[in-house]
Give the backbone structure.
Amino acid sequence: MIGFLKRLWWIIRRPSAYFSLGFLTMGGFVMGIIFWGGFNTALEVTNTEAFCTSCHEMRDNVFEELKPTIHYSNRSGVRASCPDCHVPHNWTNKIARKMQASKEVWGKIFGTINTREKFLEHRLELAQHEWARLEANDSLECRNCHSDESMDITRQSKRAADAHERFLFTGEKTCINCHKGIAHQLPDMAEAEAQDHARLLPPAEGEGLLASTRSYLGMSGH
Amino acid sequence: MKHLRLAILAVPLFIATAAAAQNQVATLRNNAPLAEEGEATQIPGIVNTDIRQVRNYPDQPPLIPHKTDNYQVDLNSNKCLTCHSRTAVEVSQAPMISVTHFMNREGQTLGAVSPRRYFCNQCHVVQTNARPLVENEFVDIDRVIDYVNAQQSGAD
């Protein structure tokens, strides 16, 4: 093994005896374009609605739920497809997200959510991943289209204008805090809330109100 | 025999009146012949003013003065309660669901929303700006009381 690596290193280091510098430079340039272009093309192919819905896990569950929502079909005819919300547009962030998504390939191979029942079982966890991601990046994918600078709240209903003025413009909350479940059905929110409350409660020591609250919420131990 | 003859005479008359009635009564089909497809009317817009409407009687479920398109109300989640629940009104400044929603059928107040009151749009509905198909002759109870009082004072 070491011998092979040494030999390889020797080949790379050795000056070319047959090819001209111009050929090697131009060849490197052309191959660079082909590889880079090919890589980006392949990347973009995985960034389409057609690619996402080519798996039944996505097509039969989340894509079906997207269809009646305003992000799929609306008066102005603009559609936010899967990657618009689930993949960052910025290149470095996109590559980071694509590397994370390799876990989804693992899930596909081992059929983690290959039935409706399994999907529903995992729905809360899957949703929480997305909420956490959008909370961490200040709802970056929402803001690719919806910016608060171009948002004219006088064109909104009073209720929406008030809420945006109070929470969005002050930076107190980010889009996902209020707009959960706009593109897909929500998981069991009582369960999600109970988990949030569990994090707020300090670890229970012995008997007392906390312990009884915990047992009421169905949380034994930590 | 006499009755039968009368009945036979009445049949064309009945058909004629029915036909006349058919031309006068406004239907949802807008008088389009059965064999043809009627022109679709515009879908009325939903009133989204956020202004609370008057109740026609004290225990009328309040009308929803905003859009509720795609609101998810099921076992997992209740979109309405994200603003109208007891704990959410401080943030949302929306009216809290009344205490009757916490009562079970025995009138006992529970700690959370009673399951029989969970599905909001069983009672609460949005309003559209559609023109009513028939005139509404509803009279408010206050006007009825005023009328009755006026009648009584007139009789005295």
Summary: Chain A touches chain B through 15 residues (CB under 8 Å). Residues 26-144 of chain A form a domain with the Multiheme cytochrome fold fold (CATH 1.10.3820). The mean pLDDT of chain A is 87.
